[in-house]
């Protein structure tokens, strides 16, 4: 029996790819205590400077330390989840500060809750305030937690990463076709997302065959003519070409010299046979 998909790790890997080459670095499953408790994702600003690109909705207010909890389509975002996130924040702030007596300013920390499903019970509470389509700020005491609901986000290019994890077939298809490639592993990562949905029985309009075809097209577009022809036999290189196209496009003499004698003889026999049939 195959092991279940780790959607939390998938979310972290997608964010890691998205922030490749930016002032931010992503750390996953950060151990925050002696008794192992894992925070899903930390997006950490490691260098100054602007972010070149479009951030997904809800991430417009990134600071230095951005702590993120993620709930997949199997889970519900509730108040307890936010309590856990606040606890992670307290531990994390202690760890990254110079000392317990010299804590970094609270303004350097942000908390985010990303969920695939709409948290209906949480949204009915007094702490909930909508700030945009699919984005809300939830107040707990003096803390404000940014909540991002994948099911409600606009279907626009900047949200492609998040739509991949929405578990809504059309939105996942949109995410796959618009998610920008930032590293060589991105195509494999998107493929693993689709594999996860297929294994769970989701009927996706964008199939693995679609994915593989697009990947082949992407790879071919990046290859030089020499790389495309590498490993192909002379016969394969000219398959489907007319004699006129062959003569116009290649060195005929050099091509003939590259053929083994038995192949030349076979071609000559075929031509003789065709002439006799005519």
Biggest sheet statistics: 7 strands, mixed
Secondary-structure-derived class: alpha/beta
Kindly report the spatial arrangement of strands forming the biggest sheet.
1-2-3-4-7-6-5
Tally of separate helices: 12
Order of helices and strands: HEEEHEHEEEHHHHHHHHH
Give a count of the beta strands, DSSP E runs of length 2 or more. 7
Shape: elongated
Residue runs with pLDDT of under 50 for 5 or more positions:
none
Strand content: 15-25%
Our measurement of the CA-to-CA distance between the termini, rounded to an integer number of angstroms, reads: 62 Å
Helix content: 40-55%
Q: What count of domains describes the coordinates?
A: 2
Task: Specify Rg, calculated over alpha carbons.
Answer: 27 Å
What integer is the average pLDDT? 82
